[in-house]
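Quick illustration for those who missed Monday's session on complexes.
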Amino acid sequence: MASCEICERESADEEPPGGWVLRTDLWSACVAPGFEVPGWLFLELRRHAEGPMGMNDAEAAELGGLIRDVSVAIQSATGAERVYLMAFGELYPHFHVLLAPRMPFAPDDEKGPALFGKRAELADPAAAYETATRVCQALTAAS
Ligand SMILES: [Zn+2]
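Prediction with zinc ion bound:
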């Protein structure tokens, strides 16, 4: 699907900026353009399927363990008090879950659903790529 940015990233020869934090046969995790907030990652299906309804049995079975493992690694790398999961599918219908750390002592406008709206303000691509590297190292150390 040529018009899908996630499919283009998945089929590219090069790693995305910040590198692949995780790659299995079915799922990838990386920093996504427009979401370069330190610790924020897309966990995305490697093939095009829309919404949680589009997952096959193998993809659905693997997702739970990956959400746990990547969340543990994000918390370890960032010191997050919570790790949020979001999946709207409005900007990119290609199924993905956004994982986002919520830091200790965060102000109210960086808690809960409000955090999603702060992504432009909180963006710091260099720090996001560096954090992604540390999340990847935490994942590798745990496996
Ligand atoms: Zn796609």
